[in-house]
Amino acid sequence: MKSLYKRQLIMMVGIVALSFTLLSTAFMLLSYRYIISETRDRLERNAGYIASFTSEYFTSDYYLKTQGTILEEAGEDFYRANVETLTAMSDSSIIVADSTGEIIYASESELYTKKIPQNVVDQIQERGSYTGITNLNGLYSTGRYFAGLPINVRIGDFEVSQGLVLVSGDTSGLSEMWRATATIFFFAAVVVLLIAVIASSITSAHQTRPLVEMAEAARKFGRGEFDVRVNSYKDRCDEIGELADAFNSMANSLAKVENQRADFIANVSHELKTPMTTISGFAEGILDGTIPPEKEEDALKIVVSETRRLSRLVRRMLDLSRLNALAESSITAQEQFDLVEVVSQVIISLEGKITERNLDMDVQMPEDKLMVWGDPDSVTQVCYNLMDNAAKFAAAGTSIRLQITKKDGKAYTSISNLGATIPQDELPLLFERFHKADYSRSMDRDGVGLGLYIVKTILGNLKENITVTSEDGLTTFTFTLTLA
Question: Is the dihedral of CA 459, 439, 470, 389 positive or negative?
Answer without folding.
Answer: positive
